[in-house]
Amino acid sequence: MMKFKSVLIVFFCIFQIVFAQTSADFLKDATEKLEKNKFSEAIALLDKAIEKDENNDKAYHTRAKAKLNLRFFSGAISDINKAIELKNTNIEYYNASAVIKILAGYKTEAIEDYTKILAIKPDDIDAIKARGQLYAQLKMFRKAYIDYSKAIEKLPKDEALLLARSAVSFSIKNYQGAINDCTSILAINAKNQDALVNRGMYYYSVKKYQESIADFDNVLAINAKEGDAYVYRGLAHKELKNIDKACADWKKATELGYNTTKWQEENKCK
Fold it and tell me: What is the spatial distance between Cα 262 and Cα 105, in angstroms, rounded to a whole number?
């Protein structure tokens, strides 16, 4: 009988401890599990946190992150939507929502999240950059150009931003703008290979063949295995009737794995 009473006392004490745990306690424990990549255990604890307090926005946000790590996209979206419903001014939640939607393949909806962030905080540079990138990926180049330009106003020496804007400028046929952005990058960093390659291509597109060749010369001085430089320099040489130089470049590009057979045959390269 005493043994039975002892078991009951132990059970009652454990029951009291579990019952006494608050939503915040479960959330804390879940966060620790999440940090250890124990996602299913974190979700179980967060379920209890939400049972204790169905208005715990942080618990929904954390559970969304755990579900995302398990690739349970619909559940993650549902949870982050609930967190936003409970606290619709929290920029962190909109950021999380955007990330989940991007990974789930809903880029247009992610743009809406970044737009909501900017309604709350118009100068949020990360949201401006991220939205611009999504616009570019969706081939909404003019909108991407606007966002990149806003970001560059705040970060005029950001080479990645300038390079991104140069690409969208080229896509909307703003060729001089594309060239100018690459030139700005090279004024900051003369050895930025991407800027040299891109500007060389842009020069080629507007028939500035000597300038194109000069850029590709500089690219190859930095990296002699940059195949695109040989291909485009060869094309520029061809336009200037320097067929031997063009053929030499295409042969080198072929050695690097590029298919230049068509150009070599058309120009009777030996």
Answer: 38
CATH architecture of the domain with range 205-270: Alpha Horseshoe (1.25)
Dump pLDDT digits (tens) for 18-27. Answer: 556 999 999 9
49 in Cβ contact with 27 (< 8 Å)? yes
Which residues lie closer than 8 Å to 72 by C-beta, 6 or more apart?
Answer: none
Q: Do domains 23-121 and 205-270 have the same CATH topology?
A: yes
Rounded Cα distance, 166 and 113, in Å = 25
DSSP 21: -
| C-alpha closest to that of 200 among 164, 231, 171, 224 | 231
Written as one string, the DSSP assignment of 32-86 is HHHHTT-HHHHHHHHHHHHHH-TT-HHHHHHHHHHHHHTT-HHHHHHHHHHHHHH
Angle, helix 175-188 to helix 193-205, in steps of 10 degrees: 150
Q: What are the pLDDT digits (tens) for 99-123?
A: 999 999 999 999 999 999 999 999 9
The CATH class that applies to domain 123-189 reads mainly alpha
In the chain, what are the domain boundaries? Answer: 23-121, 123-189, 205-270
Output the pTM of the full model. Answer: 0.87
Chain mean position to CA 99: 9
Topology of domain 23-121, per CATH? 1.25.40
Distance CA 48, CA 24 (A): 10
